[in-house]
Amino acid sequence: MTVKTIVLRVDGTNCDVELVEAFRRAGAQTERIHINELIRGKHSLEEYHILAIPGGFSYGDDVAAGKLLANDLKYRLHKDVEKFIDQSKPILGICNGFQALVKAGFLPALDSRREQQATLATNDRALFIDRWVHLRQENRGTCVFTKSLASQLYVPVNHGEGKFVMEESNIHRLEENDQIVFRYVNPEGELAGYPWNPNGSVSNIAGICDEHGTILGLMPHPEKFIHRYQHPFWTRLSASSEFIGWLPLFRNAVDFARRRFL
Amino acid sequence: MWIVGIRYKDVTNDPHVQEVSKVIKDLGIKGVNQIERIEVYAITGAHNETEIEKICKELLVDQLIQNYRYTSPKGTLLDLVSEKHEKGKWLAFIQYRPGVTDPSEERIKDGIRVLGIRKVYSVKTASLYIFGGHLTKQILETICEKVLANDVIQVHSTCELGRCAEKELRIYGAPIREIPDKSENSPHPLVEEIHLRDAEDTDLMRISKGWRLSLNLAEMKTIQKHYASEGRNPTDIELNTIAQTWSEHCYHKTFKIPVKVDAERINGLLKTYIMRATKELNKSWCISTFVDNAGIVEFDDKYGIAVKVETHNHPTALDPFGGAGTGTGGVLRDIMGVGAKPILSTDILFFGLLDTPHEKLPRGLLHPTRMMKGAVAGIADYGNKMGIPTANGAIFFDEGYLYNPLVFAGSVGIMPRTKYVRNPQAGDVILVVGGKTGMDGIHGVTFASAELSEETQSLGSAVQIGNPVEEKKVLEGLLRVRDRDEKPLYSAVTDCGGGGLSSAIGETARDLGAIVDLEKIPLKHRGMKPWQIWISESQERMMLAVPKENVEETITIFEEENCEATPIGRFTNTGKLVLRYQGEVVGKINLEFLHQGVPLLPRRAQWEREKFPEPDSQKGDLGKYIKLILSSPNVASKEWVIRQYDHEVQANTIINPLQGVHCDGPGDACVLKPIVDNWRGIVVSNGANPRYAIDPYNMALSVIDEAIRNNICCGGRRIAILDNFSWGNPERPEQLGKLLDAVRGCYDAALGFGTPFISGKDSLYNEYIQEDGQAIAIPPTLVITAVGIIPDVRNAVTMDVKEVGNPLYIIGETFDELGGSHYYSVRGFIGNAVPTVRVKIAKANMDALIQAMDAGLVRTCHDCSEGGIGITAAEMAFAGDLGVHLELGLVPAKMTQNDKILFSESNSRFIVEVAKSSAIEFEQLMAGTVCVKIGNVTKARKLIIKGVDGEVIVEESLNELKEDWQSTFRW
Known about the structure:
Structural class of chain B: alpha+beta
Largest sheet of chain B: 7 strands, mixed
CATH class of the domain at 421-598 in chain B: Alpha Beta
Largest interface: A-B, 56 and 63 residues
Shape of chain B: globular
CATH superfamily of the domain at 421-598 in chain B: PurM-like C-terminal domain
Strand content of chain B: 15-25%
CATH architecture of chain A: 3-Layer(aba) Sandwich
Radius of gyration of chain B: 29 Å
Strand order of the largest sheet of chain B: 16-18-15-19-17-20-21
CATH architecture of the domain at 421-598 in chain B: Alpha-Beta Complex
Oligomer: heterodimer
Mean pLDDT of chain B: 93
Number of helices of chain B: 29
Number of domains of chain A: 1
Number of helices of chain A: 7
Number of strands of chain B: 39
C-alpha cells in the first residue's frame, strides 16, 4: 500500500499541479481533488493520509487572503478536517493554504484551541512580491516535516499577504512549544529586515506548526524547488554541487505517514 | 441595507493608507497630515443584528488587526466614523459606478451563505477615507481624481465632517439589475429597424456615428445595397454584427486592402509580406499559422506550443488596471481558444514620460506614472490569480505615448497535438461558458477603430472589469473537457474577445450557419437588448461547439468547477446566422456577405524621411554616459515591476527574468520546461524599439534581430516570431507609408533568418485628437515576440559573468549607425542612421554561437542592444558581481571614435564569456565568423574600458553603476 495525498483545490487554487508533482516525487500517490468532490461525497478525506492545501488565490482572495477557504474548512469540511487532525495525519498548507489554516484556527492552535490566534496581513510594502529568500530551520524536533532538513534553505516567496502577525506573548509561547519552524534570514543566517524578510513578518516568522508537529504552514513555496534547475542561478553553480532543494520535506511527510498509517 | 466599516487598529499597519500618503507626497499635494481608511461593505438582505455580527466576526473582519462598526438600516455612512464630531476633518468616499460589476460581490455572498445565512441580495464594497490637516474641497477633489478614484469606473464624493449632505454619503446599494430606458417617452421596441433604404450619404454616416459603428461611407453603402437586394432594412442587431465583423480589430482591413505607392499597387500587406514569408519558408514544424486564435508550432512529436500576442491599448488608456488586466485575460483565452494550457504571460508596455508635468495633461488623462502603476498592477493581478507566470516583457517611455499608452499582452501555451480540433458540424450545440454577459465592453471593438479624445476619456461602457478567478475556472473545466476522452468533447472552441459572441459564433459558423436563442444567454442585468447581449464584450467567456451526445457531460464537468455552461443554439448548414429572441427572429445574416462583403478600397501610402542634426563625437571619459544611459528609464532596472509578477508559479521557469548572483540582472529571455520528465524547453523573448521609428524599415529589421538574438542568448533556436503593430491612423498616407516600410522589413528579416511569422495582430488609430482638432499619433511601434526551443534546458545560458580570468568575446561587427541610439538620446539628439541588419552574416554568427552553446563552451551570453557594448558589459559585470575589462581597439568596427564603438547599437552582436580552458575549442568552432576576444572577467569589481589608443576611457565601480541602474525605479 502506498501513502495517499490529497491536494485540495477550490476556485482560484493555482499551485496544485506542482504540489502534486512534489508529493509524487516523494513517493506518495497524489490526487488533485476539488472541494466539490468532498462536499458531494465523491471522495472523502478519510481515503487519504496527507492533506496538502496549495497556494493560489482561493476565491480571488476576496475579503482577505485565504479567508473564504478558511471558512470552507471550518464550516463545510469541519468534522472531516478535525478527525484528520485528531488522527495525527499530516497537513501541509503552503502560501494560500497556510493563510487558510491560520484563519481557520488550525494553526497555531495554542492550548489546543482551534480559533484564529494569528494572521497573515498585507505585506509591509503593500505589493505582491516574487523573490527568493533564505529560511533558517528553527524547529527542535516537534515538526514531522523537517527532520534532517538543511539548517538553511533557499526558496521563493510569491505573495501579497504574507506578513505573519501575532501578539508578542503568544510568539514566546510558540517558541516554548517548539512551534516555530522557519524564519526569514539574510544569507549569513541572521535575522534581518527587508528584503530578507520580504513582508515584514513579526519575529521574521515564515512557517509554523501546531503543538503536535503534524500540521505545517508556511508562506514560501518549497514545492517550487525540488530539482536543481529551479534554482534561480543554477547556471553559476558547479555541476558537482548537490541540489535536491526541498524534496526532503515532502519525503518526511510521506515517511511519517507510511510509518504511522500503513 | 446594513453598512459595515472596517478599520485597522493601527493605521500604520494599513498598507493602502501608507501607499496613498506616499503618492500624495510625491505629487506635491500640501496640507494633508493625517489619513485614515475605512473599508465599507454595504449588505442588502433580511438580516438582524446577530447575523451582521456573525458576518463581521466570522468573515469580514480580521480581529487581530482590525476593528469594525456597523449601522442599522436606518443609519448612514457617518455612523462608521468614530471621529464624526471632530472639526476640520474631511471625508472622501469612493465606490463603483452603478452598473459596474464588482467581481468580488458573488464570492462574498457565497461566503455569507457558507456561514448559514441564506438571504443576502447584494454586497457592495467601497472605501471611505478620513483626512486631517489644512484642507479644502479643492484639495480633496484633487486627491480623489489623481490618487484615490478612477472616474471611469468609480464615483467619488467629498465633504467636510459636520457639513456632509445626504447625497454625498449616498451608497449605491443594490446593483443595477435593470438597464434604465433612456427614451422614456417613446415606446421602446426590442429590435429596431435601421432605415438604410433611401438614406443619403450624410444619413448613413450619421447612423454609423450614432451607433458607434466606426463604418465608413463605402462600407455603409455596401450594406445599404446588400439589404436593398434583400428587399428590406437591416435590424440593429444585424448592422451591429456587420460592424463588429468588419471592424479593424476583427477584420484587419488595413492589412488586407490594396495599397498604392507611387505607381505600384500592393495587394494587401499581410498576404504580400508577412504571410508570404511564412509560406516561402514552409517550415514543417509550423502546425497552424494565422488562421486560429493562436499560432501553433511543434514542441516535440507529442506536444504543440501555442502563442499569441494582443494589444489592449484603448481600454488601458481609460482604466490602466482593468484595461491591462483584461488584456492579459483576453490573450490567455486566445491560448485556451485552441485548447492549450497557458504556461506563460508576456507584457510589453509603452508609456509617456514619467516626468511629464501634471499641468500639461489634458482633463481626464491619467499621468504616465499612474498609468504604469495601474497597468502593472492589473497585469500582476490577472496573471498571478490565474496562476500563469509572467516572465518576459519590456517597458518603454516616450513622449509620443502620453495620450496613447500601449499594452502588448502575450501568452504561450502547451497542448497535446492530438487534442487540437477545429471541426464544428451542423447540429453541434453552441455552449457559452464562464462569466455572465453584461453591459461592460459594448462597442470595444469599434471603439478601437476610433481615435481617443477628451470625449472618449469619459466613455465608460467600453471598460471591462476583469475576474481572473472566473477565467481560471473556465480553464480548469476546459482542460478536463479536452482530456476526458481521446478526443475533446468539443468539436471547436473559441474565446469571446473583441465583438463578443457575435465574433465567436459568426467566425465559427463561417462555413456552416447557426441559430442562436439570445434569451438563453445568462445575463448580469435585466433589460439588455438583443443587440447588446450579442456584441457585449464581457470578459471570461468562451464558446464551445459540442456534438449533441457530449453536451450533458460537458455541462456537468464545468458545473463541477463552479462554472456555468449554457446551450444557446446550434450550428446549421444554411449559410445563415439566425438570431432569435424569445422565439422571434431578430436577425438573419448572410454569412458569405458578413465575411466577404467588406469593400476593400485602396489607400495611398507615402511619406518622406525627416533629417535630424548629428552630434559631435565625444572624447575623454565616457563613464558618465554609461551612467546616464543606465539610469535612463528605458534602460534602468525594472525589478520593481518584475517582482510584482509571479514568474515561478507552475514551477516550470528554468531561466528567470532576473539573473545573476543577486537575482537582479536583466535577462535576455526566459526558458520554460513545460513537461515533467522531459528536459526539452521553450525560450521566449521580445524585441521593440520605438526610437528607431524614424526609419521603419530598419526598425523592423532591428527588432526582429533583437527578438531573435535575445532568444539565442539563452540557447533558443528553431525560432518562430509574432508581429504586433501599433500605429497611427492608416487612412493618412504618411502612416500607411511607414507601415509599408515596416512590413517590408518584416519580410526581409523573417525570410533571411528563416523565422516564420505564425501569428500577429495590429492596433491602429492610436491617435489623440486635441481640442484644436490636431491629431497626435504614437511613434510607429512594432513588437516582435520570438519563441524558440532548446533541446535540453540544462544547456541554457544566462547573462551574468561567472568566473574571474575567463576571456570575453564579441560576436558580430560594430558599425557607425547611432541614429536613435540611447547615447544620442541622453545627449539630446536623435541622429539619422538607424542600425540595419546584415542578415546573412548575422545568421551565420548566430548558428555558430548556438553550436558552441550546445557543446557546453559558453558560460555567459548577453546581447549588445540598447546602449551598446558599454551598457552590455556593465550589466554583465554587476549581475555577476565581478569586474570586466575590455579593449575597444580589439572590437571589429568600421570606425575609430571611442564613443561610437562603445555606444553604437549595431544589431546581431553578442558578448560571450568562455571558460579559460575552453577558449581554444571555442575559437576553433567560431572560425569563419566575426568573433574576437576583447577582454576578460576580473576580480576587481570595476568596469574598465580602454580606448582604441590604449587609454582608459571608462573606470567605474560596479556599486556605482548598479546604483545608477537600480535607483530610477526604486519606488
